[in-house]
Design goal:
This protein is of the alpha+beta class. The protein is built from eleven helices and 26 strands. The strands form five sheets. Strands 4, 5, 6, 7, 13, 14, 15, 16 and 17 form a nine-stranded mixed beta sheet that branches. A six-stranded mixed beta sheet has the order 8-3-2-12-19-18, with helices on one face. The protein is globular, with a radius of gyration of 23 Å. The structure holds FE2/S2 (inorganic) cluster.
């Protein structure tokens, strides 16, 4: 069941609801370019644009339509202030790592601002301050530690109790001159600049295989693209040669967008544990939206997704004079085990294939920083941030052991989770994992009673998927793969759909 509200805009992202769709062509046959960029989100499009500015012929390859998936479901806070990251980085790495992380993200923000300005992209870009705030007096010490660490990292932050929120706070770290924007308006504007002069955007073209070499080859379902370098900017690297699935955890979070009876607070706010985030957004008709995010959890590990929207709304009504709830949406992101994204060569043996992933909910500045880092690397320049974001900074043999033990977990889940039932026992509009005489099944009964039955065994590594009632999808709790009700892959690392079950088993 999706949220019960009769929202004006419905259960969809405001970014998608307020922009037109795209209609770039499919690849038609083989092609040769200088760089192939796979993935039409913020990291892919900015990387493609920067490489085009460097004089490269670029092909941007997107399996669906550009800016439809993760980037279209963000809250689009363009900031280098990421909760309490700097104290963590100084404590677990060193001041230099924290400094380079901050510098890369400030540069990502600066790049977006300069492109908006240079190319006159109409995208509601607003400069504003970012805050990590708390209402709990016993959390103030953490905020103060973050102020100290962020200063060591070179960021002009301050401790404050003064902000635009309509309720008292115990303290906040404030970083001025950050920004928010409309991510689809920005990136659709950028896409128009990427296309042409020997560069292309190919939608509905699925990359199936990447082969490193001189040249590299990207095999797609529409032809083979030959290129000197390849960038995989597909949220999760669709070709995982370096155990990314075991080095990142998938995380789902929720957004509710509403109008207020009164002014919408200016600034961008997040609590230390990311339980709630707040920002404003101007609408086309002059109204202001308040976006409230939060209620995050590891993908596939809860069964109360619809209630999470309702809890956000309830929290918002306790703190703001909510007039009308207009939109709601959710997103999934991956975070690296050490909270630092993976941006660079895709594996220890890769020579010309790069990856950008693990943005942990901060994809706007990380995505832009990835574009800067990767475009510089590909044209032969050194990036000072390369060592911080190096995807191969961990010893992969240890990861391989984790993978082996993880395989057992999936099998145990298969054996222990299922209870006997008939497909018709599944309530209309809901999904259940059942065990019939024909075997284990993930069954969804549509509102009209139609039964959709697929295998519940994730095609990645064999864990059992869980029903996500808010998004009507089957989500894997192990590494975050997501599947539609007919088994189609919505998000990797899985590449193959869940097999359809016999339409009429002997129940
Ligand atoms: Fe890895 Fe499902 S087993 S995503």
């Amino acid at each position: 069941m999706i949220p019960e509200h009769a929202y004006e805009g419905g259960h969809q992202s405001y970014w998608l609801a307020s922009t037109e769709g795209t209609n770039y062509p499919r690849l038609d046959g083989d092609a040769t370019v200088d760089v192939a960029v796979i993935g039409g989100g913020i990291a892919g499009l900015i990387t493609a644009m920067l490489l085009k500015e460097e004089g490269k012929r670029v092909a941007l390859i997107e399996a669906g339509r550009i800016v439809q998936r993760v980037t279209a479901h963000t809250t689009a806070k363009v900031t280098a202030l990421h909760g309490l990251i700097y104290d963590y980085l100084v404590s677990n790495f060193d001041e230099e790592t924290a400094r380079l992380y901050g510098e890369a993200n400030q540069a990502g923000l600066g790049l977006i601002a300069s492109m908006v300005d240079r190319y006159k992209i109409d995208c509601d870009f607003v400069r504003t301050a970012a805050y990590t705030y708390t209402t709990e007096p016993d959390q103030v010490e953490k905020i103060e530690a973050e102020v100290e660490a962020a200063r060591k990292a070179g960021l002009p932050v301050e401790f404050t109790r003064d902000c635009d929120l309509p309720f008292p706070i115990a303290g906040a770290i404030k970083l001025d001159w950050q920004a928010h924007f409309h991510p689809r308006k920005y990136l659709l504007g950028l896409a128009q600049l990427v296309e042409g002069d020997g560069s292309s955007i190919w939608e509905q073209t699925q990359a199936l295989k990447v082969e490193d070499g001189k040249p590299c080859r990207v095999t797609t379902d529409r032809g083979v693209v030959t290129a000197d370098a390849v960038v995989m900017a597909t949220h999760f690297p669709f070709q995982d040669d370096a155990f990314y699935f075991a080095r990142m955890a998938p995380h789902r979070s929720y957004v509710v967008a509403m109008t207020l009876d009164g002014p919408v607070p200016q600034g961008m706010y997040i609590t230390p544990n990311s339980s709630h985030s707040i920002r404003s957004q101007p609408m086309q008709d002059g109204r202001q939206l308040l976006l409230v995010g939060g209620e995050g959890h590891q993908t596939g590990k809860v069964d109360d997704e619809p209630q999470r929207y309702q809890r956000i709304e309830k929290w918002a009504r306790q703190h703001f004079p909510v007039k009308e709830v207009l939109y709601s949406w959710s997103t999934q992101d991956f975070g690296a085990f050490d909270r630092v994204p993976f941006i660079g060569l895709a594996s220890p043996t890769a020579k010309h294939v790069y990856v950008a992933t693990g943005f942990k909910g901060w994809g706007m500045t990380h995505g832009a920083a990835a574009g800067l880092l990767l475009s510089q690397t590909i044209v032969g320049k050194q990036s000072p941030w390369a060592k911080v974001f190096n995807p191969n900074r961990v010893e992969l043999t240890g990861v391989a052991d984790m993978v082996k033990s993880g395989l057992g977990v999936g099998k145990e889940l298969v054996a222990g989770y299922l209870t006997p039932a008939k497909r018709e026992d599944v309530p209309v509009g809901e999904g259940r994992i059942i065990k019939t005489d024909a075997g284990e099944e993930a069954v969804y009964r549509a509102p009209d009673g139609t039964i959709h039955a697929v295998s519940p065994v994730c095609t990645h590594m064999g864990c059992i998927v869980n029903w996500n009632a808010a998004e009507r999808s089957w989500d894997c709790p192990c590494h975050g793969s997501r599947f539609g009700v007919d088994g189609e892959v919505l998000a990797g690392p899985a590449q193959k759909p869940l097999p359809l079950m016999d339409p009429s088993p002997a129940d």
